[in-house]
Amino acid sequence: MGRGKAIDRTCALTREEKPASELIRFALSPDGVLAPDVDGKAPGRGVWISLSFAAVEEAARKKVFARSLKTQIKVPDDLAFLTKTRLEQRLTGTLGLARKAGALITGAAKVSALVENGGAAALITASDAAPDSRRKMLQAVRRSGKEAELAHIESLSSDQLGLALGLENVIHAALVPGAAANSVIERAQRLALFIATERKEDDTI
């Protein structure tokens, strides 16, 4: 029996209907505080917002959550940043599980060889990797002939990767094909989509 059609939800901010994979759910804690429900499984009523840092900020500013839930709620001032942190935690947790399952390798030489031979499902590069290190790894990607097919995850810093994997100075890693890689890629895509609209400190208003 085939899998059913993906469930669509409505963004409470824009009223646009989208697949649930392109939105994020928010739910109330028992004490009435709004929190991101990144897995979409918290009990009770929830509010769906487009998977976007800017959309969450705007929804909080326009009091969309209170109107949707029709009750008095407390919305954290840093809701968008809290949501980003939760998405990062889901990704780092999945990376740790992938390493324990033997589905993730580290070390520039090993990663480069796996990528160049076409054996990687995803390349992971620290967001703060040095330009020269990044360039050399991208050369391996091009030599593989699978540049368009290889997922490239760049949303976590070296420190975040190190904490997730229990290692120091993690700049590059790679995932071998399989369920663990698919899970990491899915969470990485959600985080990347969310932070694409994040304002940087030096952005003008």
Automatic annotation (TrEMBL):
Keywords: DNA-binding
Domain of life: Bacteria
Lineage: Bacteria, Pseudomonadati, Pseudomonadota, Alphaproteobacteria, Hyphomicrobiales
Identification of the protein by name: DNA-binding protein
YlxR domain location: 9-77
Pfam family, one: Ribosomal_L7Ae
Residues in the signal sequence: none
Record-annotated Ribosomal protein eL8/eL30/eS12/Gadd45 domain positions: 91-173
A molecular-function term among this protein's GO annotations: DNA binding
